[in-house]
TrEMBL record:
EC number: 2.7.13.3
SUPFAM superfamilies: ATPase domain of HSP90 chaperone/DNA topoisomerase II/histidine kinase (SSF55874), Homodimeric domain of signal transducing histidine kinase (SSF47384)
Higher taxonomy: Bacteria, Bacillati, Bacillota, Bacilli, Bacillales
HAMP domain mapped to chain residues: 173-227
Chief localisation class: membrane
Record protein name field: histidine kinase
Species of origin: Paenibacillus glacialis
Transmembrane keyword on record: yes
Pfam entry (one): HATPase_c
Histidine kinase domain span: 235-446
Mode of membrane association: Multi-pass membrane protein
Catalytic activity, as annotated: ATP + protein L-histidine = ADP + protein N-phospho-L-histidine
Length: 450
């Protein structure tokens, strides 16, 4: 069953039950009150008649007395101890009552049935005998009133249900419209592949509006993710296309003229080899960027930053044959992941060796509770307007210049991701033609600070 129908059904049934129970209670109370009222009234009336008759006994003939006291809608009679009734006197409409069996009671008695109230009171008569004065009155009036009440309550219940049903319908619409709109938008997104937003009308700040806004935020996030994913894939394929084209053209060259011109062999193999290395590096970086940080297996520990910087510098010195000088305090500690911090250092050292010719300086120290490693080069530097862009994926300041250097523009964006994952801060300062300084700021573990 649809949610809208469920809201209608459950709310309507609940309201109907509530109304019926309320009206039944009202009817029951009123019924009881009316019947009790009539019994009280007939009792009081019978007592009054009995007193009057006792006083007038012997002076006025009993039959006349009975005729004088006969109720408007009922019967009055006197019953002797032997059960004989003096000719009962009935009102015009209740002549059938005289056929009722006369029963003598030794004490006062009240009898109520569906249609009549009967009250019997013993009275000492003029001849010393104890007689019963018995008054019977029809309940027709009370029953008629109750009948009217029944009709009124039924009509009122039905009338009251109409606005209730309307308001439930309205409530269902208020709740369901945003949900239906959301479902429709989702279907539309699935069908068209476009990231549509919900149209949110009104100023209300209720939960449904909040749900709509959250939905739109989510769609925006998805769209942004999708766009950057798309951008990433197209950038990656574009970047891979160039080395592949170079490899293909050199392979073609070798195929066509490799045997006739052996001098082409070395050049081709060199180019194919370097492009293959570039592609391998790029694929590795791409894979790391594509991985979720949870899969990076970060293990945080206290590290000797001086040792780490010296180790990395040595490895670099050996690999590239560049002069790298490490400067700074001996005992600087930082709390981070060793492998990832090394990787970060390599990214900056790699950039320093790619974009400078001079000696590279690595400084290790601490300032205001933080350890730092600084990589300083005196190379080509980065123009200040380009500096904020170098952290973007695939961004290279000068594409033509970098092509020979080998960079693909992924190093610094990877550095940002790594820094975030291992809880360090990175800063890049640069001046075009002067050089670049990359800083890694690492929290020191409190227990190790002496
Ligand atoms: P790449 O692999 O191209 O070096 P990065 O993301 O590491 O990619 O760097 C982006 C761009 O920033 C580089 O292409 C380069 O133009 C510039 N850059 C980074 N580091 C330096 C540096 N030390 N000196 C000069 N330019 C730099």
């Amino acid at each position: 069953m649809r949610l809208r129908s469920k809201i209608h059904l459950y709310s309507s049934v609940l309201f109907a039950i509530l109304l019926i129970v309320m009206n039944l209670a009202t009817y029951y109370m009123f019924n009881k009150l009316s019947v009790n009222n009539q019994i009280d009234r007939v009792e009081a009336q019978t007592l009054q008649i009995a007193n009057g008759m006792r006083q007038a006994a012997g002076k006025i003939p009993t039959q006349d007395l009975l005729r004088g006291y006969v109720p408007v809608d009922g019967m009055i009679r006197m019953i002797g101890p032997d059960g004989t009734s003096l000719a009962p006197v009935t009102s015009g409409s209740q002549q059938d009552l005289s056929k009722r069996k006369a029963i003598y009671d030794t004490s006062a008695r009240v009898q109520v049935d569906q249609r009549y109230v009967m009250v019997s009171i013993p009275v000492i008569w003029s001849d010393g005998e104890v007689m019963n004065v018995q008054v019977t009155e029809s309940m027709q009036g009370t029953m008629d009133t109750l009948q009217v009440l029944r009709v009124v309550l039924i009509v009122v219940t039905c009338i009251a249900l109409i606005p209730v049903l309307f308001s439930i319908r309205l409530l269902g619409r208020v709740i369901m419209n945003p949900i239906s709109a959301m479902t429709l938008t989702m279907k539309e997104i699935r069908r068209s592949g476009r990231f549509n937003r919900l149209v949110l009308e009104g100023q209300s700040k209720d939960e449904l509006m909040e749900m709509g806004m959250t939905f739109n935020d989510m769609i925006e996030l998805l769209e942004n993710n999708y766009k950057s994913q798309e951008q990433f894939v197209s950038n990656a394929s574009h970047e891979l296309k160039t080395p592949l084209t170079i490899i293909e053209s050199y392979a073609n060259l070798l195929k066509r003229r490799g045997l006739d011109r052996p001098e082409l062999f070395n050049e081709s193999i060199e180019a194919i080899h370097s492009e293959a290395i570039r592609m391998k590096e790029m694929t590795e970086q791409l894979l790391l960027l594509a991985k979720h940080k949870e899969q990076w297996n970060i293990s945080m520990e206290t590290l000797n930053l001086s040792e780490l910087a010296m180790g990395s510098a040595k490895a670099f010195r050996n690999a590239y044959g560049r002069e790298i000088h490490v400067d700074g305090q001996q005992e600087v500690f930082g709390y981070s992941d060793e492998n990832k911090l090394k990787q970060l250092l390599f990214i900056f050292l790699d950039n320093a060796q790619k974009y400078s010719e001079d000696r590279i300086l690595v400084e290790v120290g601490s300032l205001e509770g933080e350890g730092y490693i600084r990589i300083v080069d005196r190379g080509i530097g980065i123009a200040s307007d380009k500096l904020p862009l170098v952290f973007d994926r695939f961004y290279r300041v000068d594409e033509a210049r970098n092509r020979q250097g080998g960079g693909v523009g992924l190093g610094l964006s990877l550095a940002i991701e790594i820094a975030e994952a291992i809880g360090v801060r990175i800063e890049l300062h640069s001046a075009e033609g002067v050089g670049t300084t990359a800083e890694i700021w690492i929290q020191r573990e409190v227990s190790k600070i002496s």
